[in-house]
């Protein structure tokens, strides 16, 4: 055989071995990586739900509850998988123990057969032997013994060969049965451990949910109060509009819309006017203005020339200013941290009236900006540049 042929054969053997071994090793690697990923995710979720409720914001509690729900679902899946593996192990244990019991009975039959054949060979007694060997009250056992003896030749040598083979099979079955018992016991411990983790996750989930439910109830109480404040304010503005004869004068030149309005602060537009999914309550509620993002203390300007008719604390709006404009229009600036105007002041378009804050019913610094036309809430966006 040439060296080239030998190298080719060697390469073929390596390829064949790799084709057999690599998938198993790769599968083990994939399983290990999946287990590590699941463990890392579990630790991340556990860290996320470890909250100090006294310091946590509502959104943090909501995120923690979502994490707890995910953790419980993942842990329940692990418990279910452990139970399934335990059931398979129990079935395997029962099967191997049953096979072992049958093997022991087969050995008893073969020993007796070998003994009977040996006696027969000495005393030369023609014997059917079936009546003695097959006598049993158990029909299944009798059938098994009959089949077993039928496979043994009419000599002690054949019976001894079958006896040795049966004993070897029993040793293998005993080893398998022992392994099955150990695996089942190990899986029982694993199920118990996974259940302990699941119970702790469920306890944390219930604790966080109770906290979240309490906060939602408080939010709903505040929103009910806020809606009352809103209705009261709307009525107040209507009364002022009826009293006002209109404020003359033109807006100061600048970046204005066609209707003479400017943006009331410099920030990114968040929630718009109309229905929105509430970030805490998780259901749709009307949003009656624009939320404009901003930093604490950032300036707020009058969107249009007018007279200040409100400047103070106003329930869920927190510190707020309302400016009455000509033409039956009014604008509201809510959640302010500070005022730069007082009731009765006349402000020009773009004039400083206060600073961005997070007072009242607010989850963080921003400006809540509303527009009313003849006292009716209206989307401010079409009025702005």
Can you lay out the helices and strands and say which pair or pack?
Elements: H1 3-48, H2 58-123, H3 130-134, H4 139-150, H5 156-243, E1 274-277, E2 284-287, E3 290-293, E4 299-301, E5 306-313, E6 319-325, E7 329-336, E8 338-339, E9 346-347, E10 352-355, E11 366-373, E12 376-378
Antiparallel strand pairs: 1-2, 3-11, 4-10, 5-6, 5-9, 6-7, 7-11, 8-10, 11-12
Describe the structure.
By secondary structure, the chain is α+β, with helices and mostly antiparallel strands. It folds into two domains: 168 residues, Helix Hairpins, CATH 1.10.287; 140 residues, Glucose Permease (Domain IIA) (Distorted Sandwich), CATH 2.70.70. It has five helices and twelve strands. The strands form three sheets. Strands 3, 5, 6, 7, 9, 11 and 12 form a seven-stranded antiparallel sheet that branches. The chain has a three-stranded antiparallel sheet with strand order 4-10-8, with no helix packed on it. It has a two-stranded antiparallel sheet with strand order 1-2. Helix 1 packs across helix 2, helix 2 packs across helix 4 and helix 2 packs antiparallel against helix 5. The N terminus is likely disordered.
């Amino acid at each position: 055989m040439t060296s080239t042929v030998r190298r080719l054969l060697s390469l073929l053997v390596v390829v064949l071995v790799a084709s057999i071994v690599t998938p198993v090793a790769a599968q083990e690697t994939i399983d290990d990586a999946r287990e590590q990923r699941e463990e890392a995710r579990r630790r991340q979720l556990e860290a996320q739900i470890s909250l100090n409720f006294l310091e946590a914001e509502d959104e943090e509690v909501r995120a923690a509850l979502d994490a707890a729900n995910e953790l419980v679902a993942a842990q329940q899946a692990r418990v279910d998988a452990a139970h399934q593996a335990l059931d398979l192990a129990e079935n395997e244990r029962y099967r191997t123990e049953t096979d072992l019991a049958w093997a022991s009975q087969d050995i008893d039959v073969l020993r007796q057969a070998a003994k009977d054949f040996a006696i027969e060979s000495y005393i030369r007694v023609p014997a059917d032997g079936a009546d003695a060997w097959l006598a049993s009250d158990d029909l299944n056992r009798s059938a098994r013994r009959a089949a077993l003896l039928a496979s043994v030749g009419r000599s002690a040598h054949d019976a001894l060969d079958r006896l040795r083979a049966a004993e070897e099979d029993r040793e293998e079955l005993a080893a398998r049965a022992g392994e099955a018992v150990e695996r089942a016991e190990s899986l029982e411990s694993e199920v118990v451990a996974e259940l302990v983790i699941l119970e702790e996750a469920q306890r944390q989930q219930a604790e966080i949910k109770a906290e979240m439910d309490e906060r939602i109830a408080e939010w709903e109480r505040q929103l009910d109060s806020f809606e009352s404040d809103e209705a009261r304010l709307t009525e107040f503005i209507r009364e002022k509009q009826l009293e006002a004869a209109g404020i003359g004068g033109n807006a100061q030149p600048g970046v204005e819309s066609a209707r003479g309005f400017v943006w009331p602060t410099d920030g990114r537009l968040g929630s718009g006017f109309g229905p929105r999914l509430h970030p805490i309550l998780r259901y749709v509620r009307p949003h009656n203005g624009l939320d404009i993002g901003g930093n604490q203390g950032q300036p707020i300007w009058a969107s249009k020339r007018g007279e200040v008719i409100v400047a103070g604390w106003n329930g869920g709006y927190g510190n707020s200013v309302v400016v009455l404009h000509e033409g039956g229009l009014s604008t509201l600036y809510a959640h302010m941290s500070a005022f730069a105007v007082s009731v009765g002041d006349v402000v020009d378009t773009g004039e400083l009236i206060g600073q961005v804050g997070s007072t009242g019913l607010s989850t963080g610094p921003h400006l809540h900006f509303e527009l009313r036309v003849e006292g009716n809430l209206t989307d401010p966006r079409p009025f702005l540049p």
